[in-house]
Amino acid sequence: MSTLDLLRPQPGLRVLVTAGAAGIGAAIACAFAEAGARVHVCDVDRSALDRLATEAPGISSSVADVAIEKDVHVVFDDVLNTLGGLDVLVNNAGVAGPTGAIEGMDAGHWERTVAVNLNSQFLFARQAVPLLKASRSNPCIVAMSSVAGRLGYAYRTPYASTKWAIVGMTKSLAIELGPQGVRANAILPGTVEGARMEDVIAARASTLGVSVEAMRWEYVRKSSLRRMVTAEDVAALALYLCSPAARNVTGQAISVDGNIEYL
């Protein structure tokens, strides 16, 4: 097998992507599908799933709130019915959470951020691991963390806390599952272009009392490359981590952020 062949995920790989109907999740799902994988996604947004079905009709889907255990069971019933097993779990689902000082933060907003960003990763990993252990196709978990999972992030405490926890969970799973041949890695995107990032920028600008334009530049200039990354940049790393070339890469938290120096 050539080095170039090693960089391609195995054709027919069975992949589940959470929150896969838009943004980074959709970019990852489509990238795997284009590489010859069989892909199933779940998302809470039915209209986004309908759009994805039009753009990528080969990708199957489930409507689900990833923080609700019974919805997670439905997703895995659908996965078994459509894919017959699982080789890759991409734990991508996440919300931005509230922006504001800790003393004024609503406890319900904190709890929802933890439920979607962290608890969902547990719920999906718990269901996926028996299927991954049965796989013979370089099985792995890709967990979506954030640059906020390696740096402190003022006024975004719930988000940063969950993203640090995801890195700890990933490293622990790598140790736990390694003897069974299952790998686990985390991706830490930086400032990703798109509507969600624009909402984050606007919320932070409002909290700090500055213009949206000034806040956008604050985000860009924190990167050594002075630019945002794209969802496709993140998808490319996910493909690599699930390829034969990465068969000995596990327990890693890998940034795709242009080297963000601080938040």
UniProtKB/TrEMBL annotation:
Database matches in InterPro entries: NAD(P)-bd_dom_sf, Sc_DH/Rdtase_CS, SDR_fam
CDD domains referenced in this protein's UniProt entry, alphabetically: SDR_c
Assigned keywords, A-Z: Oxidoreductase
GO molecular function, one term: oxidoreductase activity
Pfam families: adh_short_C2
Similarity field: Belongs to the short-chain dehydrogenases/reductases (SDR) family.
The protein's name in its UniProt record: SDR family oxidoreductase
